[in-house]
Amino acid sequence: MDTIHYKEFGSGKLIYFIHGNSLNLESMIEFYEPFFETNQSFRRIYLDIPGMGDSYLKPSINNSDDILEEIYSFILDHSNNKNFSLCGHSYGGYLCLGLATLFPNISNLFLTCPVVKAKHRERILENHKVIVQEEVIPVDNKEYFEDYLDMNVQISNLSWSKYQHSILPGLKKGTDSFWTNISEEDYMLSFENLLFDRIKDTHCTVLLGRYDQIVGYKDQLELMNDRKNFEVKLLSHSGHNLPIDEPDSLFLFFKNFIES
Fold first, then answer.
1. How far apart are CA 258 and CA 237, in angstroms?
2. What does DSSP assign to residue 49?
């Protein structure tokens, strides 16, 4: 029986989607399923990270290495030794990088705002910026409006609606206490400093937000820019919630990714 909760759609080329910390699979479904309304030639598996959403956290899990092993086993059971792609946001992107070192049959990666340094104090972060496109007066979920303003750059009724549909399901669901209490040492993959040396042949498309105060963008550029297998784009009007801030750019780059 799977301890990892997931939702699956379509058939064809296989893509796994891994959400960010404190969220659940609904965020990635909201971000990416619209791409497949006119292209049904992909099998999409959206999963909840153990201890988040509806995925069970085994008592034996102590750190990100253990989380990675759980997801590795899940993918091994569901991919039938076929090639597949990975798509991840934030911590989910960090896990995708880890998985790319374990699987020889990963076709490519698509990452938005990935963690590359687990220890917060070691990250180069940006100042958050708010661009108010129009006045937004919240009617529902008023208690989350401040978080929306703290996390989004583009402020509009449309982005507030997208935030409620993509981010709030995970926030309202909550996480296992394991994630609340995890130390930075346990949050870090034990081989973090070797990640990019071990990913030499897998093509990676990476989108970063100019005003990302959670993971920044400068560390990612330093680690990725000189590597031929990494295509890195810095979006000028986004923060950490890049898929909500610049959905048109996300659509363009993801369309190129799945068609490559």
1. 24
2. P
Asked if residue 1 is part of any domain, the answer here is no
Q: Are 258 and 35 in contact (CB under 8 A)?
A: yes
What CATH number does residue 166 fall under?
Answer: 3.40.50.1820
239 HSE (CA, 13 A, CB side): 20
Strands of the sheet with 203-209, listed across from one edge: 6-9, 42-47, 13-18, 84-89, 106-112, 203-209, 230-235
Query: Buried b vs exposed e over 90-126: b needs ≥16 C-beta within 10 Å?
Result: bbbbbbbbbbbbeeeebebbbbbbbbbbbeeeebeeb
- Residue 69's φ and ψ, nearest 5 degrees, are -65, -40
Residue 186 CA to residue 45 CA, distance in Å, equals 27
Contact between 21 and 179 under an 8 Å Cβ cutoff? The reply is yes
Task: For the chain of 260 residues, list the mean pLDDT of each consecutive stretch of 10.
Answer: 90 97 97 90 97 96 98 95 96 98 94 98 97 96 97 98 97 93 96 93 96 98 94 98 98 92
- The residue written with tokens 């990612």 in the block is 220
193 lies in some domain = yes
The answer to pTM > 0.85 is yes
Q: How many domains does the chain have?
A: 1
